[in-house]
Write a structure and sequence with these properties.
alpha/beta, globular
């Protein structure tokens, strides 16, 4: 998970209750977020780079996506106010 530096590291998906969370539409993390009870918090996105910019600007509270993809996009777009939190992702059935 990616969040704005200074807003706190979320160590559990349930901590995102009441937050605005971007997730790539159709991504396995969208299902994980729904399974964690984040139905009202999820905002589907289709462009991770744009989602990270929105997060950086304070328009959303977190982005759920691949750490590797986020690292690449953050570096490419010279975003310097985001951090990562590792969340345990349960195996999918």
């Amino acid at each position: 998970m990616i969040y704005r530096r200074g807003d706190g590291a979320y160590q559990d998906l349930r901590k995102l209750k009441g937050k605005r969370v971007l997730v790539n539409k159709g991504d396995v993390l969208e299902e994980v977020a729904h399974n964690a009870g984040l139905d009202k918090e999820i905002i589907p996105m289709t462009n991770t780079a744009e989602g990270l910019v929105k997060l950086s600007e304070g328009k959303v509270d977190a982005v759920l996506c691949s750490r590797e993809v986020a690292q690449y996009l953050i570096k490419r777009n010279n975003i310097n106010n985001l951090d990562f939190s590792s969340l345990p992702v349960p195996p999918m059935k």
